[in-house]
């Protein structure tokens, strides 16, 4: 794993848009169905999704699927790319997904299997110039093996 990224709130505010800062650093969200990447799926081998805050590779294009929930959904992540925490906010018990490199809030996962990771588009960026060899060489693991919750 790449070195941890630690920045002050002021440093993050200079680098991120107001919406990105709200989501990544303050655990904000976006309305279901308004998501930039909800219906966007690159072809397998065409690229991967990275954390918009630190550019940490998170998910391959092949891991993206259409869940119908209104947020981008992934069923696998790169090994060590994400971590999870139990989130008891808003009177619910959910699994929060965080970037393992910068601790940026990415979204939430399902409690029962951890196999469905729902992410907020403005916390992600997609890199489409990734070669097939580089993308397929990355270790990928089921979300259930990468969490702490």
Regions with pLDDT < 50 over 5+ consecutive residues?
A: 130-149
The beta-strand count equals 11
How far the N terminus sits from the C terminus, by CA atoms, comes to 20 Å
Roughly how much helix do the residues carry, as a percent range?
10-25%
Specify the CATH class.
Mainly Beta
Helix and strand composition category:
alpha+beta
Provide the CATH topology. Answer: Metal Binding Protein, Guanine Nucleotide Exchange Factor, Chain A
Overall body shape: globular
Query: What is the strand arrangement across the widest sheet?
Result: 3-4-9-8-7-6
Report the C-alpha radius of gyration, rounded: 14 Å
Share of β-strand residues: 25-35%
Give the biggest beta sheet. Answer: 6 strands, antiparallel
What does this structure look like?
This protein has 149 residues and is α+β, with helices and mostly antiparallel strands. The chain has a single domain (9-145), classed as Metal Binding Protein, Guanine Nucleotide Exchange Factor, Chain A, CATH 2.170.150.20. The protein contains 3 helices and 11 strands, in the order H-H-E-E-E-E-E-E-E-E-E-E-H-E. The strands form 3 sheets. A 6-stranded antiparallel β-sheet has the order 3-4-9-8-7-6. It has a 3-stranded antiparallel β-sheet with strand order 2-1-10, with no helix packed on it. The protein has a two-stranded antiparallel ribbon with strand order 5-11. It is globular and about 35 Å long. The model is unreliable at 130-149 (pLDDT under 50).
